[in-house]
């Protein structure tokens, strides 16, 4: 990225529109690179097959987007750079922590869907910003790339929402109901055993008094 313009020594940077687009694309590139490393690890903890397929699809989309962003940056005379996208890093670290702390099953699947959607929403915002900047500069390669990313991202977000509402949450609620029913049965059994022991004790006392 070209050095930003300053009005005097020590003044804050004042990047132009092209520099802002370059910075946005570099952050998108880094976010997708981080996501490409994180998704295969997260998929190992997923139970629902449909969720795993969604994440595999998102991984493929991300790999293509990385390549297209590199092309867009090349047209701008820039490279991806090495600056880490701290926003994406924080969102993905949150997903990793959940995967380490929650047992595999519907609960973890629900939490991972939420974590991936939060990341996707961030990406959608970044893609929209890059698209607007590219339109202002008539950078049509970037405009087309961001338009497709936005379309795929919104579709993925809707797919994950439907999956959570129609499959994951019902499974989670069903498991919770089964656990509550099992706990109730154990409680009733313990109470029944207690009553039986009490009756047996009384019978034993009665026999003792009779003698």
Description:
The protein is an all-alpha fold. It has one domain: Ferritin, core subunit, four-helix bundle (Ferritin). Helix 1 packs parallel to helix 3. The model has no long low-confidence stretch (mean pLDDT 87).
Q: What is the strand and helix layout of this fold?
A:
Blueprint: H1 17-43, H2 49-75, H3 86-101, H4 106-137, H5 140-210
Feature tags:
211 residues; 0% strand; mainly alpha; 5 helices; Ferritin; single chain
Helix content: over 70%
> Could you describe the largest sheet, including whether it forms a barrel?
none
Radius of gyration: 28 Å
The shape is elongated
Q: Could you tell me the number of beta strands? A: 0
| Mean of all residue-level pLDDT scores | 87
CATH top-level class: Mainly Alpha
What is the CATH fold-level name? Ferritin
Number of H/I helices: 5
- N-to-C order of helices and strands: HHHHH
Determine the CATH superfamily: Ferritin, core subunit, four-helix bundle
| C-alpha end-to-end distance | 102 Å
Low-pLDDT ranges: none
Proportion of beta-strand residues: under 5%
Domains, number: 1
Summing up helix and strand content along with how strands pair, one would put the structural category as: mainly alpha
Q: What's the architecture, going by CATH?
A: Up-down Bundle
Summarize this, please?
The chain is mostly helical.
């Amino acid at each position: 990225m070209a050095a930003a313009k300053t009005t005097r020594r020590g003044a804050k940077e004042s990047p132009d529109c092209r520099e802002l687009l370059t910075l946005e694309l570099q952050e998108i590139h880094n976010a997708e690179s981080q996501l490409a490393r994180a998704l295969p690890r997260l998929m190992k903890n997923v139970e629902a097959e449909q969720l795993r397929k969604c994440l595999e699809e998102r991984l493929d989309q991300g790999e293509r987007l990385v390549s297209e962003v590199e092309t867009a940056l090349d047209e701008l005379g820039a490279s991806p750079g090495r600056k880490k996208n701290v926003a994406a890093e924080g969102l993905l670290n949150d997903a990793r922590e959940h995967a380490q702390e929650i047992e595999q099953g519907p609960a973890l699947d629900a939490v991972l869907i939420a974590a991936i959607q939060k990341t996707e929403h961030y990406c959608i915002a970044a893609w929209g910003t890059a698209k607007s900047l590219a339109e202002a500069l008539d950078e049509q390669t970037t405009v087309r790339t961001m338009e497709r990313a936005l379309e795929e991202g919104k579709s993925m977000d809707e797919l994950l929402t439907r999956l959570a509402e129609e499959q994951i949450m019902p499974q989670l609620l069903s498991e919770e109901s089964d656990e509550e029913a099992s706990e109730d049965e154990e409680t009733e059994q313990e109470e029944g055993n207690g009553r039986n022991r009490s009756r047996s004790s009384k019978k034993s006392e009665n026999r003792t008094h009779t003698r």
